[in-house]
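Protein modeling request. Please complete all fields; requests missing the sequence field cannot be processed.
Requester role: graduate student
Desired output: 3D structure, token encoding
Chains: 1
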Amino acid sequence: MFPGTYARTTPDKPAVVMAASGVGLTYRELDENSARLAHLLRDAGLRPGDGIALLADNNVRCFEVYWAALRSGLYITAVNHHLTADEVAYIVDDCGARVLVASAAVGDLAEAIVARTPNVRIRLAFDGPVAGHGDYLRAVEPFPTTAPEAQPNGADMLYSSGTTGRPKGIRRPLADRRVDEPGEQIVTVFARPCGFDTDTVYLSPAPFYHAAPLRFLAMVHRTGGTAVVMERFDAEAALAAIERHRVTHTQWVPTMFVRALKLPPEARTRYDLSSLRVAIHGAAPCPADVKRAMIDWWGPILLEYYSSTEANGTTLIDSAQWLAKPGSVGRPLLGVVRVCGDDGIELPTGATGTIYFERETQPFAYHGDPERTREAVHPDHPTWTTTGDVGYVDADGFLHLTDRKAFMIISGGVNIYPQEVENALALHPKVHDVAVIGVPDEDFGEQVKAVVQPAPGIAPSPELAREIIDFTRSRIAHYKAPRSVDFVDELPRTPTGKLVKGSVKARYTR
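Delivered output (510 residues):
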């Protein structure tokens, strides 16, 4: 299914509504507006397999651009507008975009990359003028609102967050089917276990350009629901949106849970959340204390998945399963989990190693980077791929994540996973945010350091550092606890809440 299906059956139903402004599109409007852009793209010479880039804040026009690309058989790259002009230009050039659509809200950035992206042939801007760009509405207005004759299915081509280096373009093979035919992977994997259907009202508090928000929002339209999109995340505003729009489904990341849990009690109880049936979370490991607190508050409606932008595999766990196995991310929904040692040999149940997913075919490649693609593929099994995460599978087949291999600390020959230490500190009342890293140590090779952003109103001090160390030692093994604590004004995180740990580590390795 796709929006055109519901434009015929429920044309006046809201397809998307902006949470704060109330601006939205019906299914008829989404279908007709995306059809106009699809005709423009075809008229401009774009053919299946070509690329289009989107540089915008959260905006209803993003959905028109996305569905125009999908129904034209194109690759669409939604670009993070928080990046620098050089980083954006790199992605737009690397993805091979021939068309760029931008919002006026990020117009300065769009203007800054014009000279650096010479392969872009058409530039359009909406919601206001942007130098070097044509007017989006004026450009599409002459084209028909009817569906193009041929509508091959396109795909997103997104870029990894770049937390450990240059962002990597993830290119999946285009499916050999029309956009209105069934078989889209995210729908077949998630729609039934998450309960997505025509009655779904889905609140998305995250930026459109990230993989999970974009793909889940697309699934809402493939199943005929309504997407409610926050312009930006605010914990109390999200609770208010759930009440106002009678939201049935939402997806948050753990840092959003933490922000909500730290709201004053009167704010947490002010809003009617009774419409909420499913609260999905992923993107980063969720500390056990945080998840347990959310289940206590919202009820056993949390569904956690483990996946990646590469979408090479997926696991899922519901609240009841998680309460029986705290810390697990569930059993596989997509792919077969294989855990391997550094020598590539598959490890026995309970042993910790690199997580691979086995599929029938290799599910992705890093665009223009065969070396990185080779690194992601098991040397002896070409359909086993990894994104570098470390974990183990228990006797019941549940996957447990440990950390990313790149961030593992080896102190005195012992492996320490920073995520465990960060989880222990997540709900400390004096800690707003924390990153745990390994720093050089003459005796042990590396030692554990906590880099802490104190809670508002809390002043850094040696006494606070000692309190943090002692608190950690009371919750996990002493050898895993920080040997030292540094305080910072702010830790670098992506807008979806992912910690940019490579940036933190770089401060100590220059």
